Amino acid sequence: MGHPVTDREEDGPATARGEYADRLVRLESAWWKRALDVQRPYRWNLRRLEPRRTLDVGCGVGRNLQNLPDAVGVDHNAQSVQVARSRGLTAWTTAEWPTCRDALPASFDTLLVAHVLEHLDVEDADDVIRQYLDYVRPDGRLLLICPQERGYASDETHVRFVDADELAATARRHGFRPTRSYSFPFPRIVGRAFAYNEFVLVADRAR
Q: Contact at 8 Å (CB) between 75 and 59?
């Protein structure tokens, strides 16, 4: 299932290339991560937010899709989408999305954008979010997640450090009202040394 990566995609952004998908799989496959079940707190965090039907933009190989029972992913990396599908997850490439069966207006409760914004400048990041807003219900939510300092430094494809204030500003630019902002899984100061500490922002449609 899935489609091969084309030469055009391989010549595009680094995050659209097969090497990037390979890196995501390799990082997930580390023996110590499997042994310790390091995804357990992140699964808990996502589920406690009760996102219900979720559109995961920039889903990668499906890490968050695996943690949500009713989610659909979209990504510009065709190889990552292949991996997600091989795991039994529902994922589409950005090229497939406009005509796929899941691209129905106002059919999702939450738009999830996790570990995406730091790869893009402000204008491109806003364009990405804007493309998918029509698929979120009028009373839907926006969930934004970005890495803190150590995580940001761990990936050479990161181009912009996005902190809690910038996440809130991003939500407001798209008509959402921030309702919750926090550091996870540890307090903010830990993010300087721990690569997996995250900024999390939840926002509702402004009325």
A: yes
